[in-house]
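Feature request, filed as a ticket because there's no other form

It would be nice if the structure record came with a short human-readable summary line next to the tokens. Right now we just get the raw output. Example of a typical job, pasted below so the devs can see what we mean:
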Amino acid sequence: MKLAVILSSNNNETNWNAFRLANLALKKGDDVNIFLQGEGVEYDKLSSEKFNIKEQVEIFLKSDKAGIKACGTCMKLRMQESTEACPIGGLEDFYSIVAGSDKVLTF
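Raw output as currently delivered:
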């Protein structure tokens, strides 16, 4: 299955759970693409001991069946630079992720 996860929250527990689900889907053999938009582009700043998002992202990025893109406009509004964990993308990337997926989940 091809799974798209749209992350638009900056709630650390929500984001942690989104990446945990994405990692479970990868373990089951699915392709998973995450698109970050709005407050979701801030997710990598929210890691804590209780909700270790960075650990989940590191696991996610190790898979060749995983992809992540972030809305460039949303990142510019927040004065963020492109990183491996939060690479700049655009509406074309968002469209491609959604159009190429069997299921789309939003967080």
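Something like this underneath would help us a lot:
The chain has a mean pLDDT of 96.
The longest strand covers residues 2-7.
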